[in-house]
Amino acid sequence: MNYEYKSISLTPDGIRVKGDDITEKLAAMINEVSNSNGKKGWRLISVIPSLKSEGAVVRLLVTFEREVT
Domain residues of the chain, as ranges? Predict the structure, then answer.
């Protein structure tokens, strides 16, 4: 089997204030992007925090794979 991969960066919009918890925003973004890509045959395989600001994750690197036919 052969696979192809794509990675995207997710960052929630809006101004963040020190101490803001954006967990729910990030979760909603992951759900939306994963469901959209899943309909195109992509499978989520990895979520890695790629940027932290004052101790909070503010950007994620999300990687998908799908089988090449």
Answer: 2-68
Q: Give me the DSSP letters along 22-58.
A: -HHHHHHHHHHHHHHHHTTT-EEEEEEEEEEETTEEE
pTM for the full predicted model: 0.81
Contacting residues for 7 by C-beta, under 8 A, at least 6 apart: 61, 62, 63, 64
Amino acid at 25: K
Quick: pLDDT tens for 15-26: 566 667 778 888
Looking at residue 56, what is its pLDDT? 72
Contact 10, 33 (CB under 8 A): yes
